[in-house]
UniProtKB/TrEMBL annotation:
It comes from Oceanospirillum sediminis. Residues 24-127 form the PIN-like domain. This is PIN-like domain-containing protein. It comes from the Bacteria. Pfam families: PIN7.
Length: 209
C-alpha cells in the first residue's frame, strides 16, 4: 500500500492535437484497480483522473503503478477535507477546469452514483460530451511466463543500471520490449511485486532479485 500525495494543487494540463477524453474516477464510490486502468482506451488522447477522498490515505501499489505509467495523462487528485458529497463537488469542479482548457474534450465519470445523472443530462443539453459508466470486474490480466522470464532476466543483467522509479521502469521496459503493450508491461511489474522481486514505495523501486 502507498501513501497518497496531495495532488489537487496541480493544475498542469497537456496540450493535445486531437480532442482528449478524460475519465474521472469517483474513488469513494468505485474502487478502481490496475486492471480497470488497463481496460481504458490507451490512445494518447486518453487521460485519467482518480479522485480520492480525504479519508482514503492509502492506495494499492498496482493501481499507483498503472496510473503513474500513463505519465502526464494519469493523475491522482486528493481531497484534503471531508464533507457530505465533497468528492462529488470536486469531481464537477475538475470537469469545469478541464472544460476551460479543452473546450472540445469529452468526459466519462466512472461511478455507480446515479446522483450525477441529472447534471450529466443538463451538461449534455449544453453541448458537452459526457457520460457515466460503472466498472466491470470480470477480467484478470497475468503476464505469460516467457515474458516474465525475459524481463526479469534483463533486469538481473542490468544490475546497477536498473531504473530507480516506476515511471523510469515503465519507460525502460517500453524501450526494451517494443512489441509489448503497456497492459502487458504493467502486469509484469505487478507480478514482480506480488512475487517479492521488487518493492514499490512512493514511485521508487527497490529490487530484491
Amino acid at each position: 500500500m502507498l501513501q497518497v500525495s496531495d495532488r489537487n494543487k496541480d493544475t498542469r494540463f497537456m496540450s493535445c492535437e486531437q480532442s482528449p477524453i478524460f475519465f474521472l474516477v469517483d474513488h469513494e464510490n468505485v474502487h478502481i484497480c490496475a486492471q480497470d486502468i488497463d481496460k481504458l482506451d490507451s490512445s494518447p488522447d486518453t487521460h485519467v483522473r482518480v479522485l480520492v477522498g480525504a479519508g482514503q490515505n492509502k492506495l494499492p501499489t498496482d493501481l499507483v503503478i498503472a496510473v503513474q505509467s500513463l505519465g502526464e495523462r494519469g493523475q491522482f487528485i486528493h481531497l484534503r477535507e471531508s464533507g457530505k458529497n465533497a468528492l462529488d463537488f470536486l469531481l464537477v469542479y475538475t470537469i469545469g477546469q478541464l472544460r476551460a482548457c479543452y473546450p472540445d474534450a469529452s468526459f466519462c465519470i466512472l461511478s455507480s452514483d446515479k446522483d450525477y445523472d441529472p447534471l450529466i443530462r443538463h451538461l449534455k443539453a449544453e453541448g458537452l460530451q459526457i457520460r457515466r459508466q460503472t466498472l466491470r470486474k470480470d477480467y484478470t490480466s497475468q503476464p505469460s511466463s516467457s515474458l516474465m522470464q525475459s524481463i526479469t532476466g534483463m533486469l538481473r543483467k542490468a544490475s546497477s543500471a536498473r531504473p530507480k522509479s516506476v515511471t523510469a521502469l515503465c519507460n525502460w521496459l517500453r524501450t526494451k520490449m517494443p512489441g509489448c503493450t503497456d497492459q502487458e508491461l504493467r502486469s509484469v511489474i505487478r507480478s514482480m511485486e506480488q512475487s517479492d522481486m521488487i518493492k514499490v514505495s512512493e514511485n521508487k523501486v527497490l529490487y530484491r532479485m
